[in-house]
Amino acid sequence: YRLNHPSALEKQDLNRRFAYAFKELLLRSDGNPPQEFLELKKNYQQELVELGIRDYQVPGLDRERYEIDADTTMREMRIVNRTIQLIFIILVALIPGLLLNLPVKLISHWYVERRRKLLLSKSNVKINAHDVVLTERVVFCVALVPTLWLTYCILLSTLTDWEGPTIALITLFMPISSYWGIVVTEAGMVNLKDLRPYIMRIFPSSRRRLAALPAARKKLRHDLRQLVKEIGPTMGDLYFGKEVDWTSIQEQIRRKQQQLKKSE
After folding, report:
1. Phi and psi (nearest 5°) for 163?
2. Tens digit of pLDDT for each residue in 209-235?
3. 140 Cβ partners below 8 Å, 6+ apart?
4. The model's pTM
5. Closest Cα to residue 175, out of 106, 102, 104, 100?
């Protein structure tokens, strides 16, 4: 069951297979899965967190140069360019973000929190009433966003001496600006997350740790494949089947869990 270019649904199915296979492995080993592999995975994940890097960025690290001189490192890693790019993105997103998106966020948060507390006080079942937050926020924003645009249009008409076509053009441009602000802000957050690894590469100790990550990832991938080859065939349909009866799998795991509790 190999996929060269899995779709989102296929990735979801594969992740689900891994999750249920791991549950099965825990039941078979009495809660003690292969510790060497888990320890290697834990150490690798800890290195990623401490160095501020993500797994998809690791494969390219073995092709980079890690000079001892910090100035050379800054030039090669383009830290200054990244910082300037991030500042530019923040400035571009600042105006639509402050005028169009931030008021909606603050008002909707205040309204949704009040609704959550109100529904929580009237319910005997809900614990935190977080299930209504998203629905209430969407419904409220659908009404609030055009109301905000109309409010700006009225303020421009009242407080300025601009002509009608100018005000109409600005009002019509508000939806585009709002969407633009969201997209640019998202891009800025991605750049902000990518900036920390570049800064960490200034320090020699961090560069050595970064240079060792591709080898650690390669070993982790090799060990995972060996573990799947060793244990996979014993998992039945989770390993061989193209279609899995998840109801049957869940029932089997539930019965094994009950048997394990009785044996204890």
Report:
1. -75, 160
2. 888 888 889 988 888 888 888 888 888
3. 108, 111, 112
4. 0.55
5. 100
